[in-house]
């Protein structure tokens, strides 16, 4: 009891630090700087342990003094992530969308891409996830507008001023249009793949964004994720894939419901067979 009374503050401190470090890790784990941070922490941990183990006083002294510069270095390395985290603090990133809002947005995006495809209007959408697309947003025209299929159609209409380039969707809103994305430099086996599709692959190689491409030439719809392009999706496949990415639970429920129906059908089928054989 005496021990608890004396040391409860230490426990609270450890808990606060643990929560803080875990939240930092969660914020940065999906970013490009995450591997750099892990590398720096590992090197620092090894060198510090060696310095204290072998009583290397000068190195230990340098490490303690270098800590301050280390903080500056981290601020510079994580500048894009910090900037977007601060911007999101002021906006609504911490506001999580309800399932219904997400379902509505995904449905609207699917409707929009299918409409564009029917009219053979070329389009490129990039959907921001954990990694900020701020750098790419700055290559285009910031909009911060509510998304609607009509707006997408007006923007990608071939004679419109912003039809060239990609549209960035962040927080279920149109963040910008006319943005230039990095074109994938990977050796493509398919030489028919033009710049719009390669830009979708390039952006999803560099970030965790998901891209939707509508081909002007063929009207086909493709989705790029993690640098992989899934092409020529039918309307149903496209809707299902979008749902699978943005509403995995919803998709799972739908699949389960379908499976239950299928198994019921199978049961009916087998009983029918019995009837026939009898
Ligand atoms: N780096 C880029 N970032 C964003 N959009 C781009 C980029 N490069 C090209 N685009 C868009 O792609 C259009 C050119 O597409 P291109 O015909 O080369 O590609 P594609 O993949 O064959 O597409 P489509 O099937 O629609 O013709 C440009 O008009 C421009 O709007």
UniProtKB/TrEMBL annotation:
- Kindly list the residue ranges recorded as spanning the membrane: 33-52, 58-78
> Does the keyword Membrane feature in the UniProt annotation?
yes
Species source reads: Rubritalea spongiae
The UniProt entry, under InterPro entries, shows: C-di-AMP_synthase, CdaA, CdaA_N, DisA, DNA_integrity_DisA_N_sf, DNA_integrity_scan_DisA_N
Q: Which family does it belong to?
A: Belongs to the adenylate cyclase family. DacA/CdaA subfamily.
- Which of UniProt's keywords are assigned here? ATP-binding, Cell membrane, Membrane, Nucleotide-binding, Nucleotidyltransferase, Transferase, Transmembrane, Transmembrane helix
| Name of the protein | Diadenylate cyclase
Bias regions of kind Basic and acidic residues — which residues?
261-278
Q: Which residues form the DAC domain?
A: 79-235
Pfam family name, one: DAC
């Amino acid at each position: 009891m005496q021990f608890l009374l004396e040391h409860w503050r230490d426990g609270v401190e450890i808990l606060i630090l643990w929560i803080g470090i875990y939240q930092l890790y969660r914020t940065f784990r999906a970013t490009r700087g995450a591997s750099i941070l892990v590398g720096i922490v590992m090197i620092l941990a090894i060198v510090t342990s060696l310095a204290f183990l072998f009583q290397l006083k000068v190195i230990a002294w340098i490490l303690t003094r270098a800590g301050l510069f280390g903080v500056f270095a981290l601020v510079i390395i994580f500048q894009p992530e910090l900037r977007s985290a601060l911007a999101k603090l002021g906006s609504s990133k911490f506001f999580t969308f309800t399932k219904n809002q997400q379902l509505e947005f995904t449905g609207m995006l699917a409707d929009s891409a299918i409409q564009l495809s029917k009219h053979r209007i070329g389009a490129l959408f990039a959907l921001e996830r954990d990694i900020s697309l701020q750098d790419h947003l700055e290559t285009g025209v910031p909009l911060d507008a509510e998304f609607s299929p009509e707006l997408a159609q007006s923007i990608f209409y071939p004679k419109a001023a912003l039809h060239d380039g990609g549209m960035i969707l962040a927080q279920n809103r149109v963040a910008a249009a006319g943005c230039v994305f990095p074109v994938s430099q990977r050796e493509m086996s398919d030489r028919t793949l033009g710049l719009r599709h390669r830009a979708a692959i390039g952006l999803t190689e560099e970030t965790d964004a998901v891209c939707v491409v509508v081909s002007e030439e063929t009207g086909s719809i493709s989705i790029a994720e993690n640098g992989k392009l899934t092409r020529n999706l039918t309307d149903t496949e496209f809707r299902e894939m979008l749902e699978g990415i943005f509403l995995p639970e919803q998709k799972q429920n739908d699949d389960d419901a379908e499976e239950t129906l299928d198994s019921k059908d199978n049961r009916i089928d087998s009983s029918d067979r019995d009837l026939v054989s009898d």
